[in-house]
Specification:
alpha/beta; 4 helices; 3-stranded mixed beta sheet; Glutaconate Coenzyme A-transferase
Amino acid sequence: MLDKNGIAKRIAKELQNGYYVNLGIGIPTLVANYIPEGIHVVLQSENGLLGIGAFPTEAEVDPDLINAGKQTITMTRGSSLFSSADSFAMIRGGHIDLTILGAMEVSENGDIANWKVPNKMVKGMGGAMDLVASAKNIIVAMQHKSKDGQSKLLKKCTLPITGLRCVRKIITDLAVLDVLPEGGFRLLERAKGISVQEIIDSTEGRLVVDGEIPEIG
């Protein structure tokens, strides 16, 4: 089973040279620590930063420099700071190649619910709805099951929807999965020590398994 850093490290393998990438709150922010050698990407934060670096050491911490999740960060050479209005113009203008988001639920059609749990206080939806409506590609980082053992990869989302038919790939603590155009999840890789049957049992939505499924390298 992958921990949060393991999920982020696997997601980092999806990055391609020259990508502009938005990292959502939670596990996605850890991707900044695992950019593959030889791959140059520009990480964007919706609160107004282009060029996020790895998380700072204790000596590098600047309390005035934070990402959208209010975590302290570093800046890479050539970074720029700007207003949130400019940031959302980039997002809504379709200039972000890849968005990596956390989620509470994903449906077999690629619908995502990641901003609100009924009867719980939230600060707001943030930029999630703009991101899922505008990004060219969306990868979700999440736990495969809830704390009470229920699948979070569903036939239909039960929580308020953030975006419809927008998720392309999901990387969980158990597996790597594609969302098929016709609906359903396709199992691509499994976490070390996790059997295909465990993933089948942990997935409520339709799951397609073709041939031998390799472990996540």
